[in-house]
Amino acid sequence: MTTKELLDIYYKGFAEKANWEHVITDDFQFIGGDMTKTQPIVGKEEYIQVIKRFSQLFQSMKVKEMIIQGDNACVIGNYDYLFPNGQKINGNVAEVWTIKNEKLKSLTIYFDTLTFANNSK
Fold first, then answer.
1. Residue 8: is it exposed, middle or buried by C-beta count within 10 angstroms (0-12/13-18/19+)?
2. Is the pLDDT of residue 118 over 80?
3. DSSP 8-state code for residue 40
4. What does the pLDDT look like over 49-97, one tens digit per residue?
5. How many C-beta atoms surround the C-beta of residue 24 within 10 A?
6. How far apart are CA 7 and CA 73, in angstroms?
7. Please, what is the Cα angle at 93 between 75 and 20, to 5 degrees?
8. Most CB atoms closer than 10 Å: which of 58, 72, 104, 111?
9. What are the φ/ψ torsions at residue 82 (nearest 5 degrees)?
10. Is residue 40 over pLDDT 80?
């Protein structure tokens, strides 16, 4: 599978909140949400738990831009959030991927953590 095919499968499932897990590696690595924590969360199940919590906050998502360079990619995802405080916000997230052996191997995300934290309380 190509990098684009893997990402298309992932984001289609991610937007639908189902059927994205099979394209990530068992030893998947995720960094995001806290700039002070540079050690990745490691493991497919661990990442699934992160996404279960995150999925409660976004109502919809779409890919705005995808740049692929071999086994690396950068995706700008656009999310419509509904926070526990009732605030609705639309925001972009930069998502940097690596691919290994035809699976998604790692993801590092960059987003407005202050707005996210202020509305998640």
1. middle
2. yes
3. P
4. 999 988 888 999 999 999 999 999 999 999 999 999 999 999 999 999 9
5. 21
6. 9
7. 60
8. 104
9. -125, 110
10. yes
**Number of other residues whose CB lies within 10 A of the CB of residue 12:** 13
- The distance in angstroms from the start CA to the end CA of the chain is 40
41-42 and 58-69 strand pairing: unpaired
On whether the CB atoms of residues 113 and 35 are closer than 8 A, the answer is: yes
User: Is the pTM here over 0.85, yes or no?
Assistant: yes
Query: 115: buried, middle or exposed (CB in 10 Å: 19+, 13-18, 0-12)?
Result: middle
Contact yes or no for 94/78 (Cβ under 8 A): no
Do 43 and 27 meet the contact criterion of CB atoms below 8 Å apart? Answer: yes
